[in-house]
Design a protein that fits this description.
The complex is a heterodimer of chains A (285) and B (313). By secondary structure, chain A is mainly alpha-helical. Chain A has a domain of 184 residues: Orthogonal Bundle (MetI-like fold). Helices cover 69% and strands 0% of the residues of chain A. Chain A is globular and about 75 Å long. In chain A, 43% of the residues are buried. Chain B has a single domain, classed as MetI-like (MetI-like fold, Orthogonal Bundle), CATH 1.10.3720.10. Chain B starts with a helix and ends with a helix. The mean pLDDT of chain B is 92. The chains are: A mainly alpha (285), B mainly alpha (313).
Chain lengths: 285, 313
């Protein structure tokens, strides 16, 4: 290898070490006793790995519940969003109907609105949905979907970005294809589910991965719209745990590791889809 | 066009349109409505532009915009320069390229809450490993996330060269610098991946032609690669600006807006008014609309200026 190659590797290794170091330090601390974690100078390798920190951290707050909540909310949000977004995308791409342009542009326009603008009205809307959660027809009297799973799912059960991404894909399917299938007597839905969706797998995976990631890592919305541990997701639980157990650093790091783990595993399994998804769309779901 | 087809099409778009309409589109109009009222737990008196007047006269808001400005200016140049260098190096048909890319992209997918907890621990004022490393090179331990003094002022004080300027001229507090470091770390892989995609779109022949014409490595980068990469760069700058203005999770976990509000950006201010002082919902909505306007103006300006300077193709 030439000298120049060595130099490049040297730079890249240094950058990689800086990027990875926080992960190393998190895992290292999570395996120490509290005394060892607090020692100065810091201990680089735990002398006696304390695997027991993980179950202890897991029991120190309702983490199993938080995990289940997030798995349910993120899973269902992703599935619904893929279904509703691709249905709409297919109609926008392949069907003719009045208002098609206006409705599609209206959806696209919402991509420019920062979430902070939607936060407050969405909160008010969630509380005042008619006939839900003890509300009357006018949306008063109860608390609507406040503090439920549905409050965390429904607003994200369709995504303008997903509609846009899928529509681009369906547009690239030749119209002859679609018309031939119709002549052969296939209904629209059969064509959609048997032909179009399987072909759209790469776009579906991209939209699904980023939808899931966004849902798994969400903090602000669930923090505002829930209050009880029975429905709160893992990120809110972890942030609360961090405030309450502020000095149990070994347990904090064990909990942080556990929360990172599922997404890191998912990333390592599907990393090509992740990086190609980012590169092709450049957008976070 | 048949009536049947139209009805079916409406059925197909109904779920998505309903959800996006109710929770994404109408809220913008509703936010404007809310922002013109005194609005606590319930809707109160109509105030017209009262909330806006109050917000614009409030030093809290200006301070929050200053924090956002520091954040943008602190992240983007450093993040994009270093990401470009790394992407450029990775692009040189290097061994282990995929391994490097995997590692560098890792922070971007990890939960900001968990990662911010790790940063708080690394930068712990008493037991943090950051202070230990500083100690190795003979620098006194810092309070990091608890330090409201600007980083620059601390540096000048240590050199006994503090000229005693007005506070804001010193730039971000040390606490905000840590938050900025976090943002660079977390978004780094994203920038690298986008740069890599941009680099692979540049036709090899163009760079080779320049080289054959006698251009050195730096000249090729400066006059061929970078200009051809400028659409990517513009995209990254616009995205990073929007992302910076919207930063919340890491600030909530690391400082909750403190110390002395030196990390409280506009989103944090909205959150505090809306969530922690519930009687100020209308006021928070007004701040959100102001933020929306500012982001919109900045984005349009960036695209306008960018369009004039970007070389497409």
């Amino acid at each position: 290898m030439s000298r120049q190659r060595w130099l490049i590797h040297l730079v890249l290794v240094l950058v990689a070490i800086v990027v990875v170091f926080p992960f190393y330090w998190m895992i290292s601390t999570s395996l120490k006793t509290l005394q060892e974690a607090l020692r100065v100078p810091p201990v680089v390798f735990p002398t006696m790995p304390q695997l027991g920190n993980y179950p202890t951290a897991f029991r120190a707050a309702p983490f199993p519940r938080y995990f289940l909540n997030t798995a349910f909310v993120a899973g269902l949000t992703t599935l619904l969003s893929l279904l509703f977004s691709s249905l709409a995308a297919f109609a926008f791409a392949k069907m003719r109907f009045p208002g098609r342009q206006v409705l599609f542009l209206g959806m696209l326009a919402t991509l420019m609105v920062p979430f902070e603008v939607q936060l407050i009205p969405d909160f008010v809307i969630i509380r005042h949905l008619p006939l839900l959660g003890g509300n009357d027809v006018w949306g008063n009297g109860g608390k609507g979907l406040y503090d439920t799973y549905w409050a965390q799912i429904v607003p994200w059960a369709a995504s303008p970005f997903g509609v846009f991404l899928m529509r681009q894909f369906f547009l690239s399917l030749p119209n002859d294809f679609y018309e031939a299938a119709q002549l052969d007597g296939a209904t629209r839905f059969v064509f959609f589910s048997q032909v179009a969706l399987p072909l759209a797998r790469p776009a579906l995976i991209t939209a699904g991965l980023f939808g899931f990631l966004g849902s798994w890592n969400a903090l602000l919305w669930p923090l505002v719209v829930t209050s009880s541990p029975e429905v709160r997701p893992i990120q809110v639980g972890l942030a609360t745990f961090s405030t309450e157990q502020g000095t149990q650093y070994h347990l904090l790091m064990a909990a942080a590791t556990l929360v990172m783990l599922p997404v890191v595993v998912l990333y390592l399994v599907a990393q090509r889809q992740f990086t190609e998804g980012v590169a092709s769309s450049g957008l976070k779901g | 066009m048949r009536v049947g087809e139209t009805l079916i099409a409406y059925l197909w778009i109904a779920p998505a349109t309903l959800i996006i309409g109710v929770f994404h589109f109408l809220p913008v109009l509703y936010a404007i409505y809310i922002s013109t009222f005194r609005w606590g737990l319930v809707q109160g008196r109509f105030l017209g532009l009262g909330n806006y007047e109050q917000a614009l006269a409030d030093p809290e808001l200006w301070n929050a915009f200053l924090v956002s400005l520091y954040y943008v200016v602190g992240t983007i140049p450093v993040a994009l320069t270093s990401a470009f260098v790394v992407a450029y190096l990775l692009f040189q048909k290097i061994n282990f390229r995929d391994l490097y890319r995997t590692l560098l992209f890792l922070p971007y997918v990890t939960s900001t809450v968990a990662a911010a907890m790790v940063f708080s621990w690394v930068f712990h004022p008493q037991y943090g490993v950051a202070n230990y490393v500083l100690g190795l090179v003979g620098i006194a331990p810092q309070k990091w996330l608890l330090e409201s003094t600007p980083a620059l002022q601390l540096l000048l004080q240590a050199l006994h060269a503090d000229p005693g300027l007005p506070g804001w001229l010193y730039g971000p507090s040390l606490a905000l610098v840590v938050v900025i470091l976090f943002a660079i770390w977390h978004g780094f892989g994203f920038d690298v991946v986008i740069f890599l995609a941009g680099l692979s779109n540049i036709p090899r022949e163009v760079e080779e032609a320049a080289r054959i014409d006698g251009a050195g490595r730096w000249a090729v980068i400066r006059y061929v690669t970078l200009p051809l990469l400028s659409p990517t760069l513009l995209f990254l700058i616009v995205m990073a600006t929007i992302r910076s203005f919207q930063a919340f999770n890491q600030i909530y976990v690391m400082t909750n807006g403190g110390p002395l509000n030196t990390t409280r950006n506009v989103v944090m201010l909205i959150f505090q008014n809306f969530y922690q002082r519930t009687e100020r919902v209308g006021y928070a909505a007004a701040i959100a609309m102001i933020l929306f306007g500012v982001i919109l103006v900045i984005t349009v300006l960036q695209l306008r200026i960018g369009d004039r300077r970007v070389h497409y193709g």
